[in-house]
């Protein structure tokens, strides 16, 4: 009697473990999705950022925001007074103006002062670049200081872009001082994409509702565009392999053309 009673818990454990394994195996995609969701939640808790909204919540907020905009109602968002000064609209507008100014000056330098690849830049181009390097690094330091943690970098993807641009522009400037010239500074042009952060300011003005909807459409279609580029790249790669095999390496049929072209288009 005691022996049977001692074996029952072991049987139950084995049965329950088999059930759990079979349950996970019945729908592995759902289990993987749940694992990814739990990992994302744990990462958000570690970083200290706000939890991500579900796609349904984002669509609901978007529709509600459009309705409020057309009806002239105020946005139900946190006021700037409740945010850090580095997260307020005024700071975003100021940094956006600096980003646009940096982009314009880079274009003017390329048009008038050369690309600087051989060190023929004038002193005032170095001076203006130094100013923007200090500003970009100061923005990163100010936000880390305001949030009291370096984990601020992971709060938003634009924060990673901000940090990356600041580091690359600083490295490019230091290398230029030692006579090593590169084009890392051109990466700062990517910060112009960060102007989409001004959407939360644009939405407050009814006259700019079309601009806001256009920006939202571009951002929403970006993921679809990425997958389109990937599919097109795969298709072109397959076509390139087939054509190279059937034409480029088929010297018996296309040998005469190889003589005409000099072989530059044959492997």
UniProtKB/TrEMBL annotation:
The keyword Membrane applies. InterPro entries: Ion_trans_dom, VGCC_Ca_Na, Volt_channel_dom_sf. The chain crosses the membrane at residues 91-108, 123-145, 157-181, 225-243. It is found in: Membrane. Keywords: Membrane, Transmembrane, Transmembrane helix. It is a multi-pass membrane protein. GO terms for molecular function: voltage-gated sodium channel activity. Residues 89-243 form the Ion transport domain. The keyword Cell membrane does not apply. GO terms for cellular component: voltage-gated sodium channel complex. This is Ion transport domain-containing protein.
């Amino acid at each position: 009697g005691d022996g049977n009673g001692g074996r029952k818990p072991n049987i139950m454990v084995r049965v329950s473990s088999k059930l759990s394994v079979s349950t996970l195996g019945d729908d592995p995609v759902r289990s993987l999705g749940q694992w990814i969701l739990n990992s994302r939640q744990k990462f958000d808790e570690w970083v200290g950022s706000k939890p991500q909204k579900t796609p349904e919540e984002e669509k609901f907020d978007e529709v509600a925001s459009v309705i409020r905009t057309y009806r002239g109602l105020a946005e139900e968002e946190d006021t700037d007074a409740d945010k850090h000064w580095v997260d307020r609209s005024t700071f975003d507008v100021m940094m956006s103006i600096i980003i646009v100014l940096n982009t314009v000056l880079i274009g003017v330098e390329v048009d008038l002062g050369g690309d600087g690849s051989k060190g023929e830049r004038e002193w005032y181009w170095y001076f203006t670049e130094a100013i923007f390097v200090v500003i970009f690094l100061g923005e990163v330091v100010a936000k880390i200081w305001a949030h009291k943690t370096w984990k601020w970098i992971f709060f938003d993807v634009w924060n990673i872009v901000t940090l990356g641009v600041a580091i690359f522009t600083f490295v490019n400037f230091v290398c230029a001082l030692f006579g090593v010239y590169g084009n890392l500074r051109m990466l700062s042009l990517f910060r112009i994409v960060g102007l989409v952060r001004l959407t939360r300011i644009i939405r407050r003005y009814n006259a700019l509702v079309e601009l806001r909807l256009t920006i939202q459409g571009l951002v929403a279609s970006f993921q679809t565009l990425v997958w389109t580029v990937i599919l097109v790249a795969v298709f072109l790669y397959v076509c390139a392999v087939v054509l190279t095999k059937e034409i480029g390496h088929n010297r018996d049929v296309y040998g005469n053309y190889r003589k005409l072209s000099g072989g530059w288009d044959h492997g």
